[in-house]
Amino acid sequence: MACIACAIGAPAAAADIELQGRKLVVSGMLDGSAIKTFTDLLASGTVRTVVFEDLSGGTADAAGAFADAIRASGVDTEIRGQCLAACAYAFLAGKTHRFGYGFQVNGILLPVAARPTAAELAVRWRGDEAHKTLADFTPATAAMADTATAKPVEASVQPTKDTKDAKDNWQPDHGVLFTASPTLFGRVYNAYYCDGTQGRDFSKCERLSDADPYKLGVLTP
């Protein structure tokens, strides 16, 4: 947990994208600034795996854009180091999604609006459910709710309280954290619920039992 805090302690710059053979390495933060470069490289057909390396988060909109591009191209995804908040949903869009090999501590923090129950954990991040969960954090969801209740919305109107609240739910330090630490006998996997009050001191998060990332679909074999 201390290693995770060290890795993400400094503010990250905008997304940095580098093509390394058949791997497309993304680091920094998913803020949408590099989405065109990202989608163009995926469209080239040369990329097999998108690697997220020490990403500290980003915006919900950027998460959706990266996730859509990954899902459409059918590539695999991999984490080296840390993948937090926005990065987590882009990661789950891969055909297969795995932690990278090596001696680093890998971790993924998936944002949640509230503490998930055991039943919710079992299905929350499997397939299309991950995409549905992302909708909890996008202002478009609340806007559609207004439309459904027949409230006319002008194009020039300012965001409503509902759309603002939906966007405010995106808290990069609030979520379920899965970690994998290397040992002499293989990797040790742990899961924690972080309510956001811990800041970047993830040692204060609540340990979750029976939350194996492979069983829950967060990682694929």
Describe the structure in brief.
The protein has 221 residues and is α/β, with parallel strands linked by helices. The chain has helices spanning 2-7, 35-43, 60-73, 86-92, 118-123, 128-134, 139-148, 161-168, and strands at 16-20, 23-30, 49-58, 76-84, 97-99, 106-111, 174-183, 186-195, 206-208. The chain has one domain (2-208): Alpha-Beta Complex (2-enoyl-CoA Hydratase, Chain A, domain 1), CATH 3.90.226.
How does the SSE layout of this entry go?
Elements: H1 2-7, E1 16-20, E2 23-30, H2 35-43, E3 49-58, H3 60-73, E4 76-84, H4 86-92, E5 97-99, E6 106-111, H5 118-123, H6 128-134, H7 139-148, H8 161-168, E7 174-183, E8 186-195, E9 206-208
Parallel strand pairs: 2-3, 3-4, 4-5, 4-6
Antiparallel strand pairs: 1-2, 6-7, 7-8, 8-9
Helix pairs in contact: 2-3, 3-4, 7-8
Helix content: 25-40%
Coarse morphology: globular
Q: What is the count of distinct domains?
A: 1
CATH architecture: Alpha-Beta Complex
The major pleated sheet works out as: 9 strands, mixed
> Which parts are unreliable, with pLDDT below 50 for 5 consecutive residues or more?
2-11, 140-168
The top level CATH class name? Alpha Beta
End-to-end gap: 24 Å
β-sheet strand percentage? 25-35%
CATH topology: 2-enoyl-CoA Hydratase, Chain A, domain 1
Number of helices: 8
Please, what is the average pLDDT? 79
Number of E-type strands? 9
Backbone CA Rg = 17 Å
